[in-house]
Amino acid sequence: MPEFHVEHFGCRAARADGEAVGGRLRAAGFDESHPAAADVVVVNTCSVTAEADRAARAFIRRTHRLNPEARIVVTGCYAQRAPEELAAMAGVAAVVGNSHKAFAPEIILGLTRQASPIGNGAEPPTNLVSLQSMLARGAPANAPIWADDRFAHSFIEEAQLVPGEQTRPNLKIQEGCGNRCTFCVIPQTRGSSKSLPPAGVLRQVEGFVAAGGNELVLSGINLGRWGRELPASEGSPRLTLAALVRQIFRETKLPRLRLSSIEPMDWDADLIALMAEFGGIRLARHAHLPLQSGSDTVLRRMHRRYRPWHYAEKVEAIRLAAGPALTLGADVMVGFPGETDAEFEETLDLIRALPFGYLHLFPFSPRPGTRGWALHAESPVAPQAVEERMAALRALAAEKSAAHRRGFVGQELEAITLHTPAPLAERGRTSALTENFVPVEIEGRWPANRLVGVWIVGLNAEGELQANVAMAKPDQ
To answer: Looking at per-residue confidence, does 164 or 21 come out higher?
Structure first.
C-alpha cells in the first residue's frame, strides 16, 4: 500500500486538520512513514507569520531533496494565502487551500492511483471539484491548485478519533473567524465561522470513549464562537459552547474534557459557571485567553474587542470559579506597529499582576493584505527594541511559570500519562500532563493514556514537576 507522512505546522486547530487527513488516508489503507520514504508527503502549513511561511518552504525543499519521488501535497493557511507561490516549487504535486481541504484525501488518492498526478492539463474528476470552484491552474510545469474565496469545502470532519499517537487528540469543532484583527490573516485563509453540528461532536466523543480515550481537547480557530451560526431547533435556546459542553457531560462518559484557546470576551457567565461546577472533575482547570497586549492603545490599534481591565475581570472570574489550581495561559505579541516603550511597560505591568502559568510569546509579523501590513510600513518598531522586549518578556514568563509550578509541590494532582521519550523511559520515568496543564515526570514506567493521581515532590533543573504515583484508576 502507498505510504504517507503528514507534517504539521501551526495551531491546535491546524493540527486537527492534518490529523483528519491522516485518519482518512489510514482508513483508505495507507501506511504511515517518514518523509524520506513516503509516497505522499502532506505539508499542513501555517501562515500566521513570515517565519511560518519560511519553515514550510524549507521543509518542502528538504523533503524533495531527500525523497525526489514523493508527491508533496501542500495544504493549510499558506496554501490558501499564496497557492501559486507553492505550486511553483519543485516536488509539489498539488496545492489544496483551506477552502477545499475536505477534498484533500480524495485528491491524494487520485495522485497515487492514477498513472499521472491529477492535473498536467487534465481536469480533476467531476465528482471531486467542479470547474467553478477552481481559483487557478498553474502553468503546465506547476502543480494544480484547489482554492477559492468561498470556503464551501473548508470543514473537514475527522475520521473517528481514538487514543493513539496523540493520547489527548484535538477534536476541531469550529472553523474560521470573523474578528478582523488588524494583524491577522486568518479571515483570509479560513473564512467565516463554521461549526460542527452537535450530533457530529457527540458521535466523535462517544466513539473516542468507546475506544478507551480518557482526555479529549475541543479546539477551533475561534472556539468560543461555536454554534452561533447554526440554526436552533424551535423552542430551544441558541447553541453555545457552554451548552455543548453540558450536553457532552450529560450524554457521554468522557472522563475529561479540555478547552483550547478561547477569546477573553467569549468567556461568558455560562462557560465560567461550568468551570465552577465541573473544574477538576470532568473539565480541565486550564484556560488560555489570548492577550496580545496589555496596553489599551495598542489593543485599539489591533482592533481587539476588549480592554486590559476587561481581560483582568475575566481572569479573576475564571480563577474564582476554578480555584487556585487553575493554569492560565496567554498569547502575547511584541512590537506591534507604533508600540512605544511606555505601551510595552503597560503589558509588563498587566502580566505581572495576573496569575499566568505560561505565555506564548512572538514578535509581530506583517502579513500581506492586512491593515497591520500598512501600519508596519508607517511606524515599524526597531528590530533591536523587539529583541529587547522579547527578552524581558521571556524572563518574566519564566519567573511566572516557576512560581506557578512551585505552588504545587506537596500537593496531589490528577494526570494523564503520555507517550514517553525513550531516554526518559530508560531512566524508569514516565511523561504525563496534569489535569491543570502542567508537564510532570512520574516515577516508574507507565503506558500512555492512564489516568493517575500524582503526588508532587519537587521540580527538576529544567523546572518540570517531579512526582510519585499516588493512585491509578482501578478500571484502567
So the answer is: 21
Contact 332, 147 (CB under 8 A): no
What's the pLDDT band for 41 if we cut at 50, 70, 90? very high
Domains along the chain? 3-146 (3.40.50.12160), 170-406 (3.80.30.20), 412-472 (2.40.50.140)
Query: Cβ–Cβ contacts within 10 Å for residue 34, how many?
Result: 11
Does position 386 have pLDDT exceeding 90, yes or no? yes
Measure the CA–CA gap between 141 and 197, rounded to whole angstroms.
Answer: 41
How far is the C-alpha of 340 from the C-alpha of 289, rounded, in Å? 24
What Å distances lie between residue 212 and 162, 418, 433, CA to CA? 8, 14, 18
Cα 408 to the chain's mean position, in Å? 27
C-beta of residue 230 within 8 angstroms of C-beta of residue 239? yes
User: What confidence tens digit (pLDDT) does each residue in 137-158 have?
Assistant: 444 458 999 998 888 888 887 7
Contact predicate 299/350, CB 8 Å: no
Helix/strand/coil percentages in the chain, nearest 5: 40, 20, 40
Q: Which amino acid is at 350?
A: L
Please identify which residue in the block is written with the cell numbers 514506567.
Answer: 445
Q: What is the mean pLDDT of residues 228-257?
A: 90
460 pLDDT tier (thresholds 50, 70, 90): confident
DSSP assignment of 146-191 equals: E--SS-TT---PPSPP-SSSSSS-EEEEEE------TT--HHHHH-
* 117: nearest Cα among 3, 39, 43: 39
Identify the pLDDT of residue 474: 60
Contact 66, 35 (CB under 8 A): yes
* Residues 190/179, Cβ–Cβ less than 8 Å: no
Q: Give the model's confidence band at 115: pLDDT under 50 very low, under 70 low, under 90 confident, else very high.
A: very low
pLDDT of residue 233: 72
Residue from 188, 190, 195 nearest 219 by CA: 195
**Torsion, CA 370, CA 148, CA 161, CA 467, rounded to 10:** -20
Beta bridge partners of residue 74, listed in sequence order:
43, 95
